[in-house]
Amino acid sequence: MEILKIENLTVEINGNVILDKINLSINKGEIVAIVGPNGGGKTTLLKSCLGFIKPKKGEIAILSKSPKEAIKTGKIGYLPQKQDLNKENFLSALDVVLFGLINKKLSKKEKKEIALNALKQVGMDRFAYYPFSKLSGGQQQRVSIARVIVQKPEIVFFDEPSTGVDVVAQEGFYEFIKKLRDETGLTIVMVSHDIGVIGSFVDKVVGLNKYLHYLGDIRGFLQRDILEKLYGAEVKLLIHSPECVSCENFHLEFRK
Amino acid sequence: MMEMLSIPFVQKALIGGVVLSILLSLLSLFIVVKNWSFISVGISHATFGGLAIGLYLGINPTFTGFLFATFTGLLIGYISKNSNLKEDISIGILFSFSMAIGIIFIMKTSNYTSDLFTFLFGDILTITSLDIKLLICFTVFVGIYLFLFFNKLMFCCFDEEVAYTTGIKTNFYYYSLIVIIAIATVLSVKLVGVILASAMIILPASFASLFFWHYKKILIFGSLTSVVMIITGIFVSYYLDFPPGAFIVSLYSAVFMLGLFIKKVLLSR
Ligand SMILES: Nc1ncnc2c1ncn2[C@@H]1O[C@H](COP(=O)(O)OP(=O)(O)OP(=O)(O)O)[C@@H](O)[C@H]1O
Ligand SMILES: [Mg+2]
User: Fold this and answer.
1) Helices (H), chain A
2) ipTM surpassing 0.85
3) Which ligand sits nearest to residue A35's alpha carbon?
C-alpha cells in the first residue's frame, strides 16, 4: 500500500531551486534512507512532506492526504535535524516523551507508564527525571526517538537520527529501528549519512542532490558511478562489518 | 503594622500586588523558556505611547494602552517568526518609535507631569477597585487558559515545528500567548510603570531557575518569591516613603544578584 507519493515536486527557496522534478513513492512498512551531500535538499524534502514548505510545483500525498491534512491525524512522527541542544526548557526527559502522547485520551498514569516503557526501549530509563537540556546530544536523540515511538505514528520522518549517537551505537540504533518496523509495520523515512552502515537495514535508498539521482536498493547505490554522480567527487567507502566484535556490547544495550 | 493594614489604599495595593505578582510569575516561565524578554521590553515601552495618546485624546488611557501593547506584541511576534530581520533591531526601532510618539503626545497634554510619572514609574498606592477587579478577572482567565493548554504551550516552547507535526495549532498558541503577555504588561504598568514592568515578568522564573530546573518548581518558587518581594516592597516603601515600584524592582533585582552570587560562589564549591 502506498503511504507517501511525491509527484513531479519542485521546491524553491528565495528563488533558488532546491529540489527539482522529484518523483518518489513509498509503501507502508518500508524503511527508506535519503542520502546525499550537504545542502542536497534532504531536509527540504522532509519539510515539504510535513507541510512546512509549500512546493512550487507538484503534489505530495501522505496517507492519501495533503501534508497539512495528514498532520492533523497525529499519525506522522518527526525527528528534526540536531536541535539547539543546550537550550534551557525546564523539562525532564520524561516530560519530553510525554509530548508524544499529548493528543491521546489516556489517564496521566497510563501515559506515564507508556512513556517510561519507551524510555526503557531506547536505554534511557535511568534518565527519566533528569533535565533534558543537560543530556548529551546522543542521549537527547534517544529521548526524542522515544517521543516519536509513543505517538504510534504510521509514518515517521527522521532527519539524521544517528547524529550524536556514537559510531559503535549506530548499528544498534538501526537494528532498533528495523525491529520497530517489523513489530509495528511502521514506515520509516530517514535522512542518513551512514551509507556504510545502513545497507542491511533499509529497503530503499534515495540518492538526492537537487534531483533524484538514484532510487533502488543499496547494492545498486554503492556503484562507483552512482556515488560519484551524487557526491561529485571521488568517494572512498568504509563498509562497517556486522561481525565487528567490539561493537557487540552496544548492540546489546540498544536491544534491551 | 495593624494600623497600616486597615488603611483602604494599602489594602488595595496589597491585594493588587499579590494578584499581579502571581499573574506575572505564571507568564514568566514562558518568557524565560522562549527567551522572550525582548518581547516584554518591547511591549511595555509601546504601552507608553498608547497611554499618552489616550490621555491626549481624552479616551481611557488603559484602553489605548491595550491597543498599542497588543498591536506591538503581535507585530513583534510576526516579525520574529517571519522575517530575517534581527529581532532586537526591529524591536529597538519599534519601541523607540512608540516611546517618541508617547513623549510628543504627553507634552501636548496640559498638566502632564503627574501622569508622566505614573506611567513611567507606576504607583501601586493609587490602584483602584476597578483596577483590582480587572486584574482578578484577567488572572482567573489566564489561570483557566493555562490549565487547559499548559502541556501544548510547553510543547510549542520546546519545539514549535515538532509540535506542529503532531497536529497542534502552534500559531494559535504563539499569538494567544503574546496577546496575554501584552495585556498583563498593561495591567502591571499601574503597579511599577512602563520602565520596570518587564523586570517583573522576567525576574520570577529567572530567579527560580537559579535553584530549580523543573518547570513545576519554577512556577511555585517564582510565584512565592514574587509575592514576598511585592508585599515587602509595599510595606517598606510605605514606612520609608520610597516610590514603591522602583523599590520593589530594586529589591527584587538585588535579591536576584544575591541569588546568583550564592549559586556561583557558595553552591558550586
Ligand atoms: N530557510 C532557508 N533559507 C534559504 N536557503 C535555504 C533554507 N533552507 C534550506 N536552504 C537551502 O537549501 C539547500 C538545501 O538545504 P537542506 O537543508 O535541505 O540540505 P540537506 O540535504 O538537509 O543538507 P545537510 O546534509 O547539511 O543537512 C541549501 O543550499 C540551503 O542553503
Ligand atoms: Mg539536513
Assistant:
1) 42-49, 67-72, 93-99, 108-121, 137-150, 167-184, 218-221, 224-231, 248-255
2) yes
3) 1
